[in-house]
Amino acid sequence: MAGLPKEITVIGRRLIAVLAVSGVALAAFAQTTFRPNPPLVSGSLTGGDLFQFYCATCHGRDGKGKGPVAVALKSPPPDLTLLAHRNGGTFPHQQVEAFVANGGRPPVPSHGSADMPVWGPVFRGLDSSDALAKIRIANLVEYLGSIQVK
């Protein structure tokens, strides 16, 4: 910076210092690892995995209705381990399948309001295969049948 007025030389040195510090900060920021957002779609077709991925936030990991967001809901989620008990000891397979596929529309009085998401269309939207949506629903319903209180 020889031959330049002193003010420009001082400004140039400061600019170089700022750029150097900014470059170090940018390099450090670029190396920072961020936790990626969780996936919105479960790749699994097994009933237990589907339940944990889509249902446990409301119904709890054990299906008893005490999921982490249950307190924020207008209607408490039902204890899904008591479906057979509430149906005379027989798991109501077809009713549960219709409820999961259609979200309780029209509302099923014993299940309260129809606040539950409509999983049938959600599962159909995961891919173009309606057959896979039916498999997901069937596997989820089978899982629910397997967690019934004896």
Describe the structure.
49% of the residues lie in helices and 0% in strands. It is mostly helical. It has two domains: 1-34; 47-146, Orthogonal Bundle (Cytochrome Bc1 Complex, Chain D, domain 2), CATH 1.10.760. Helix 2 packs across helix 5.
List the helices and strands and how they pair.
Blueprint: H1 6-31, H2 47-59, H3 93-102, H4 119-126, H5 130-146
Helix pairs in contact: 2-5, 3-5, 4-5
- Decide which structural class fits the backbone: mainly alpha
Please give the domain count.
2
- Unreliable stretches covering 5 or more consecutive residues: 108-112
CATH topology of the largest domain: Cytochrome Bc1 Complex, Chain D, domain 2
Tell me the radius of gyration: 28 Å
Strand content: under 5%
The number of strands is 0
DSSP helix fraction: 40-55%
- What is the terminal-to-terminal distance? 86 Å
What can be said about this structure in brief?
This protein has 150 residues and is mostly helical. The protein has helices at residues 6-31, 47-59, 93-102, 119-126, 130-146.
